Fold this protein.
Amino acid sequence: MIRVLLADDQALIRAGFRVLLEAAGDIEVVGEAADGEQAVELARRQRADVVLMDIRMPGVDGLEATRRIAADDDLAGVKVIILTTFESDEYVFRALRCGASGFLVKDTEPEELARAVRVVARGDALLSPSVTRQLIRSLAGQPEPRTVPDREVLSRLTEREREVLALVAEGLSNDEIAGRLFLSPLTTKTHVSRIMTKLGARDRAQLVVIAYETGLVVPGGSPAA
């Protein structure tokens, strides 16, 4: 049974998500939080596997709550899914940087909500290719300057691994990467796993952040040389 915590300041949204998730059969909602501070406290107390976290909440918001969860060694197994209205939400990249494993729009279909919880609970990142591409494009319009590329980080990777990382950050799935680089899906999966190990990334979401912050991928353009 996957243990889920709901964090949203709107009781009606929490109630709706509870009904949808508990209807799945393999998911149990173990608590509800109306703000970020309560979410962190309940994550510790209830030993949740996944937290569905709204960004905009009073007091401690979803970004800070996500950062606290990701930084707490006792909560190392807790995964955070950010709930957002993506088109108008400028905080998605910051949420991934804080340690979120992915994000969902609030009007997600019921079956997709349960699937998303299962994906993140098993340790994968919830970053669909289409949403990832949209995220990367949105970064190009941010006025905040990017981090200076850290070539020492990228030097840990082989040339092939850098190619794979760049394609992950562009939003390609393992199958799409395999087709692009003429590899088998299993080989591609192995490359991705090795990259995460070498870079200390928790999941695929963190690979997108690293590729962006090191300058390997340039939003709106081609991978950096």
Q: What stands out?
A: The mean pLDDT is 84.
